[in-house]
Amino acid sequence: MALGGVIWGSSALMWGVQAILLMAAALLLVSLILLVWLSIDFTETLDVAPALVSGQAHRLIHQPQPRDGPVIISIL
Q: How far is 58 from 47, CA to CA, in rounded Å?
């Protein structure tokens, strides 16, 4: 960023602020055109189907009931 500031600042001193702002606008326009032209569309192969849920569950010795109190869940 510092190098860019030096380059744009020295260019503004040599050619003037208005010319450099027009050049920056032109470079931005060119980069946007190149972005559209060179972009890759990943949405053609996008699969939005929900993931499969595995049905694995541990067998509990004691089935907890709502009246049993607070529960701590820890994942190792």
A: 31
Q: Is the pTM of this model over 0.85?
A: no
How far apart, in whole angstroms, are the C-alpha atoms of residue 76 and residue 68?
Answer: 24
Q: Tens of pLDDT along 1-56? A: 999 999 999 999 999 999 999 999 999 999 999 988 888 777 777 777 887 777 67
Tokens of residue 12, six digits? 């503004």
Radius of gyration of the chain (CA): 30
Residue 50: CA count within 13 A, CB half-sphere: 3
The helix, strand and coil proportions of the chain, stated in percent and rounded to the nearest 5, come to: 55, 0, 45
The whole-angstrom separation of Cα 61 and Cα 20 is 76
